[in-house]
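Subject: Protein record for review, amino acid sequence with backbone structure tokens
Concerning: The relation between a protein's sequence and the shape of its backbone.
How to read it: Take the token row as a discrete description of the fold.
Enclosed: The protein record, placed directly beneath this head.
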Amino acid sequence: MDHQNHPNYEIPSESHHPSPSAASCLSRIRLAASFDPQISTKINRFIDSMRIDRLRAYVCERTAYFCGESQQKEVGDLFHQFDRSIEIIDRVRGQLTTTEKDQLNMMENLNDTLAEQTFFVYKFHQLNPVDLAILTSAKTSLTTALSSSTPDAALSKAMGSFSPQDLEKMATLPVAHLPEEVRSHLARCQITAPEVVHDTVAFLLSVIGSKQNN
């Protein structure tokens, strides 16, 4: 292939590793997904359809619930490494015909996510090989970034002490009552380290808040 015909040529890279801060943030979202399957469903859908634009928007939206400001910035910086991919997607979307836009609107109205996913995968595979390689590389890199980070062991253990029934019950409680309820539960499970208790209370509140706005 003559790369001179592609002035924006970018060699697909596997080196888009998240910073430790971003990895920590993504690990919290990954942990949250085990308590709210909708998070996994949406992330997987956007990855499978190579919609890096929607993946970025959704993940950054979730960081507001589970991560501090500096971590949110680091995740934003991670996604900035894929700006070229998002430019390609924007171009594809901008070139859709009126008929294709109508088809997409119908899919969205019917919540036919599989059809929408198939539609975009088909469109992306009509791209030139360089652009398709950039999207494919972004998909691979982000899949790794989102799935390889290990959640904090102490927080994972604390959250693992809650049954689905416990969580359902807590979701119905007034927010003001939640911290004490969580502390009591953790104490019964012999989890008393102040920093772990504090983090678990904050995380559980975030899970409930995220779930209500997902």
Remarks:
- The chain has two domains: 18-148, 153-212.
